[in-house]
Design brief:
alpha+beta; 10 helices; 12 strands
Length: 311
């Protein structure tokens, strides 16, 4: 099994439509959270959920509860309308942050999700039970055969709880578990001693999300098409963004986007097209480098975001 370090992530193209599928699994997280009140003690080195992904992902988004609790509340309420107000409040108090990676090829899109939370490991079998359509398998770590973990599977969901603080969902759960074992036992992943690369900057940018929602995409044409509803060929190397609630309007977000162009000759035309596409009447644009353009203050209605992340 191939292991990677945070800085070795190879970011490929993505399908932004997958985002709305991912957040439906907040409901699964909330079901676990609602039924406990104590926290299991952790052991070994601390594990950052963002370090658990494999190399297939091409788009990453980090969503902290602190950024906008109303967004998480909306997602859980939409998917689990029978939850009481008290249960919803309990669930929200136990969720911290979701780290999500998306990958796609010509025909399929897949995801990985690692949720920072507070859930007793021994309660997972009671929630992901055969009565609820789940089967359980025991996974033995290839790196340390004394480490055994339960993986629960249904037709649409693979999930594991390697510790009380991390919930894993989606593609290649065994691979994420192996990364977890390495990090918890040794504090690093194989190859971590290699020289730092550009992707380390991406890692720290995403991991820095606290009171904002952050995302990053390499080859980001699909992202722009989904966001704008039009297909713009801007010759971009990557796009990253930060989204926060608008303090002056509770119904919208303020979005800052940074575009890195493949060549300086594409910047001027790209800037004009982006200005037209976004209708940037109140936004501010600036060049951070000869090939890097940041547009700040883009207004985005919250309903647009809710539609992306709920069914």
């Amino acid at each position: 099994m191939q292991m990677i370090k945070p800085g070795a992530l190879r970011l490929k193209k993505f399908n932004f439509k997958m985002v709305k599928r991912l957040f439906n699994f907040w409901g699964a997280v909330s079901l676990l959270i609602l039924v406990f009140s104590c926290k299991s003690a952790s052991s070994g080195f601390p594990v950052n959920p963002l370090e658990l992904f494999d190399e297939e992902n091409g788009f990453f988004i980090v969503v902290p509860k602190q950024a906008d609790i109303s967004l998480i509340q909306n997602v859980i309420s939409e998917n689990f309308s029978d939850l009481s107000e008290k249960d919803l409040e309990t669930a929200l108090s136990r969720i911290e942050k979701a780290y999500i990676g998306l990958a796609n090829n010509k025909s399929t899109s897949t995801y990985q999700c690692a949720v920072s939370c507070n859930i007793p490991v021994n309660f997972a079998p009671k929630i992901f039970s055969p009565k609820k359509g789940f089967s359980k398998t025991e996974y033995i770590s290839e790196y340390n055969s004394s480490k055994k973990y339960n993986i629960f599977s249904s037709e649409s969901l693979n999930v594991s709880l390697p510790s009380s603080e991390i919930l894993l969902l989606g593609r290649n759960v065994p691979g994420m578990i192996e990364n977890f074992v390495h990090l918890e036992q040794d504090g690093y992943l194989p190859g971590e001693e290699n020289d730092l690369k550009m992707e380390d900057t991406v890692f720290h940018f995403l991991d820095g999300a606290y009171d904002d929602i952050r995302f990053y995409a390499n080859k980001p044409q699909n992202f722009l098409s989904m966001l704008l509803g039009v297909n713009l060929d801007l010759k971009l190397q990557w796009v990253k963004g930060i989204m926060k609630p608008d303090p002056l309007n509770e119904n919208q977000y303020i979005l800052d986007l940074t575009f890195n162009f493949k060549n300086i000759k594409y910047v001027k035309a790209g800037k004009v097209l982006l200005s037209i596409a976004f209708g940037l009447t109140d936004s501010v644009s600036q060049m951070d480098s000869p090939t890097e353009l940041t547009i700040s203050g883009i207004k985005l209605n919250k309903k647009q975001v809710y539609k992306l992340i709920t069914f």
